[in-house]
Design a protein that fits this description.
Helix 1 packs parallel to helix 7. This protein has a five-stranded parallel sheet with strand order 5-2-1-9-21. A five-stranded parallel sheet has the order 11-18-12-13-14. It starts with a strand and ends in a 10-residue tail after the last helix. It has helices at 10-25, 63-68, 121-124, 131-143, 163-180, 206-216, 308-327, 364-378, 386-391, and strands spanning 2-6, 34-39, 43-45, 59-61, 72-75, 77-82, 87-91, 97-101, 104-107, 111-113, 125-126, 155-159, 187-192, 218-222, 226-230, 233-236, 241-243, 246-249, 253-255, 272-273, 286-288, 293-294, 340-344, 350-354, 359-363. The chain has nine helices and 25 strands.
Length: 401
């Protein structure tokens, strides 16, 4: 029997850990139930931190962890999924192909930044979506020092006033001062089509975010969008032109394209609709998790967000349930009633809220300390010690806030 997990992000990592945990509890040897993880590299990209400087350091190795729990790592890109034949085709090194059969498949392919057909976006826009994107932005920012000083050089437009856009924008003043000098006349502008900043963060959070933006000197343009980009700057939908040499796109996410190969219903973000055990009902033997799945968190209408917080726990349930079906033991319905947010606000601190209603619990330096602990400890892989790694993946305890 074989479980194939596609993706080495937070959901894929915890799916592997949790499946291996249940296999161990049931006393099934690895040669009886093989768990295989397919990914281009045996590495976790710490994606929630890619708005920070030095993004090339924001990865964590997984090879030793996978070996410690007897999970087979298969290097390559999953290119096709045949759910009728239960085969995944993997593009491996040097153009070779590997046909990988499965008894259960866990789709943990994550999400990608949504890039609409805005003129000039592909040529002139940056992002902090994937590791390569963040590295390209970091190199570009450092390269500004070699350009003639001008308002355009010192101006950054961030398209998107949600969580990612705010974290990227509030980090920029300190990043740019370290590159261009503490006396550089900087300008950071957030552009968002919504009439309010951070619309999903709730009314209680908004004054705190707005005050942080004022403190950092960050401007906003709300109720408008980016109409076009070129090498001289951006033109907004209201006709305003902003001269700048850096545009960061942070507006919207979509499930990774591979999910389109699963014959199933999807939501507006391309996520596969799953049942409470995270199965894809129309595709026998297939589970979806993390950003690839639209899953109910509770019985009152809350659904998992495209976030590390939800992906880790969803991954643990998906891996457990895929293994449970093959081992003949009961599955567990995914549930995640606890929900918190911790929004980095750069040198203005951070903002910590609890619950879907976003009740503010901590602000400023206290919240910043929590944010730093989340970013440097909580979201990293467990140690490559078998007992500790397996224990970390109890679905009922993962991300139990």
């Amino acid at each position: 029997m074989r479980i194939v997990i596609i993706g080495a992000g937070f959901a894929g990592m915890y799916a592997a850990l949790s499946a291996a945990r249940l296999r161990d509890i049931q006393g099934a040897p690895p040669d009886e139930l093989e768990i295989a993880l397919v990914a281009p590299e045996p590495t976790l990209v710490v994606r929630p931190r890619l708005y920070e400087p030095n993004p090339e350091t924001l990865t964590a190795p997984l090879q030793d962890v996978l070996e410690a729990i007897d999970v087979v790592y298969i290097r390559g890109h999953a290119e096709t999924i045949d759910t009728k034949s239960r085969i995944v085709e993997v593009a491996a090194a040097e153009g070779t192909r590997k046909m990988l059969s499965y008894d259960r498949l866990v789709v943990a392919t994550g999400s990608r930044l949504f890039r609409p057909n805005v003129p000039g976006l592909a040529e002139h826009g940056f992002s902090v979506d994937q590791l390569d994107d963040a590295i390209a932005l970091d190199r570009h920012l450092h390269g500004l020092l070699n350009r003639p000083a001008s308002k355009a050089r010192n101006t950054v437009v961030v398209a998107g006033g949600g969580f990612t856009g705010i974290e990227a924008a509030t980090e920029l003043p300190s990043r740019l001062r370290k590159i261009l000098g503490k006396d550089a006349q900087l300008r950071v502008v957030i552009v968002d089509r919504n009439e309010t900043i951070a619309p999903d963060m709730g009314a209680g959070s908004r004054p705190i975010i707005e005050e942080a933006l004022r403190k950092l000197g960050i401007e906003t343009r709300l109720g408008v969008g980016v109409a076009s980009l070129d090498k001289s700057g951006v033109t907004l939908s209201n006709g305003e032109q902003i001269e700048c040499e850096t545009v960061i796109w942070a507006a919207g996410m979509r499930a990774a394209p591979l999910t389109a190969q699963i014959p199933a219903e999807r939501d507006q973000f391309g996520r596969l609709l799953v049942d409470r055990e995270l199965r894809v009902p129309s595709a026998s033997g297939v589970f979806a998790t993390g950003d690839a799945a639209r899953a109910a968190c509770d019985d009152v209408g809350n659904y998992a967000l495209m976030s590390c917080q939800h992906a880790t726990r969803m991954g643990a349930f998906a891996g457990n349930n895929a293994a449970a079906e093959l081992l003949g033991v009961p599955t567990r319905p995914y549930h995640q009633k606890a929900y918190v947010t911790c929004l980095d606000l750069g040198e203005a601190g951070a903002l910590f809220t609890r619950g879907w209603e976003r009740t503010v619990e901590m602000v400023g330096d206290v919240a910043k300390k929590t944010k730093q602990e989340i970013n440097t400890v909580w979201i990293y892989p467990p140690k490559a010690e078998r007992a500790a790694a397996l224990a970390s993946a109890d679905p009922e305890r993962v991300t139990a806030l």
